[in-house]
Structure formats: structure tokens, C-alpha cells
UniProtKB/TrEMBL annotation:
Pfam families: ThiS. It comes from the Bacteria. InterPro entries: Beta-grasp_dom_sf, Mopterin_synth/thiamin_S_b, ThiS/MoaD-like. Gene3D superfamilies: 3.10.20.30. This is MoaD/ThiS family protein.
Length: 107
């Protein structure tokens, strides 16, 4: 999918590790998707649109009752974790890649 005449463009969303169980995976692989974005869309709006397709992911990704991320899935944009070069409100552009990965916790 390339940039359309109306300015819409694809953003790649990749889900890895145990987080794939929320999008039809087995928890050990990666699954890639394309989400159509428009000029002015943010990381948050792309993730909201994407997670709406997968109710279990939607529940895991977002803090209940808010538009903030929950605490169990990390988000990276173009290989950098959120907070380094991007925030949820950073505009996306053609060619951007968003990675969702489950956190690993333990002692």
C-alpha cells in the first residue's frame, strides 16, 4: 500500500512475543499488519484504530477508562521505545513502524 491521492498512507504495526496471542498468534512469533493513516494521525490514533480490531488487545493495551497505555505492553516507534523520540501524540508519517511487545517481568 502506498500513499493515496488523498494523503492516506500505511503504517506497519508489528506485534511480537506473547502479545501475539491477542491478535491470533501463538505467543512465540511475530505478526505484521498495515493500518491506514491520514495526515495528522498520531501514534495514539493509529494504535486506537488497530486495537479496536482485536478486543483482547484493546483491553491489554489501554488503561481502563483512559486513553493512556496500560502497563503490560511496550510500544516502540521506528525501533525506539516511546518516550525516547516519540510520544503517543507524535504524528505518524509514511514508512513509520510501530512495534508492540509484551513486557517480561520477574525477579
Amino acid at each position: 500500500m502506498s500513499e493515496a491521492a488523498d494523503g492516506r498512507f500505511p503504517v506497519k504495526v508489528e506485534v511480537m512475543a506473547w502479545a501475539t496471542t491477542f491478535v491470533g498468534g501463538d505467543g512465540s512469533d511475530r505478526k505484521s499488519f498495515e493500518v491506514e493513516a491520514a495526515p495528522g494521525d498520531s501514534v495514539r490514533s493509529v494504535l486506537k484504530r488497530f486495537s479496536a480490531r482485536f478486543p483482547a488487545l484493546n483491553d491489554a493495551l489501554w488503561d481502563r477508562g483512559s486513553a493512556d497505555l496500560g502497563e503490560h505492553i511496550e510500544v516502540a516507534v521506528n525501533d525506539a521505545l516511546l518516550g525516547i523520540h516519540h510520544t503517543l501524540d507524535t504524528p505518524v508519517k509514511a514508512g513509520d513502524e510501530i512495534l508492540l511487545m509484551g513486557q517480561f517481568m520477574g525477579g
